[in-house]
Amino acid sequence: MVTLVKTSLFALCLFLVACATPSKAPESLYEEIGGQATIEAITNNFIKEISFNEGIYRYFEKTNIKRFREKFNEHLCVSTGGPCTYTGDTMLKVHQGQKINETDFNTTVDLLVSAMAKAGLTYPQQNRVLKVLAPMRKDMLYK
Ligand code: HEM
Predict the structure, then answer these.
(1) What percent of the chain has pLDDT over 70?
(2) Per-residue pLDDT for 24 more than 80?
(3) Quick one: which of 73, 102, 107, 115 could link to 46 by a disulfide (CB 3.0–4.6 Å)?
(4) Which CATH code fits 28-139?
């Protein structure tokens, strides 16, 4: 009888503990890759990759890099589900007039992939970022 009561009490305790433990919200990609530090590492790597690539750097010759770094960080943070607000211009407005062709677009994506890999993102994580950016492609090409 005593054993039965003890067992029942134990089961009740387990049940109460399970109920009291809040179910954790699924982690965002932003949190999964390491938050703000990783976002900033990707952006810094991306800027380096651009500066080493003559064909792509020519687009950025007159760009204020300080502003680009800040806005790209925000954009990437939002794209990965992070707690940021994007305060830059729309992708259409920013890339309008640059007449970016498909080859240069693909090269830039390769530079971003390399920047993400160097910041430690796995292939699946890189692909999740690219999937979010893919619909924006139409606002950047041939504008
Ligand atoms: C991969 C997708 C891309 C994303 C997510 C992206 C995102 C951005 C962001 C967030 C900014 C800053 C916006 C602001 O200052 O308000 C920016 C600026 C810029 N982007 Fe992109 N971009 C992409 C592809 C490209 C490509 C393919 C090129 C050219 C080959 C390019 C050239 C530029 C240039 C030159 C600027 C600076 C414009 C200025 O000086 O005002 N971007 N981009």
Answers:
(1) 84
(2) no
(3) 115
(4) 1.10.490.10
The separation between CA 140 and the C-alpha centre of its own chain, rounded to angstroms, equals: 19
Q: What is the predicted pLDDT for the residue at 10?
A: 55
Ligand-binding annotation for 75, yes or no, is no
Look up residue 41 and give its two tokens. 């590492």
Q: What share of the chain is helix, strand, coil (3-state, %, to 5)?
A: 70, 0, 25
- What are the structural domain ranges in the chain? 28-139
pLDDT in tens, 37-58: 999 999 999 999 999 999 999 9
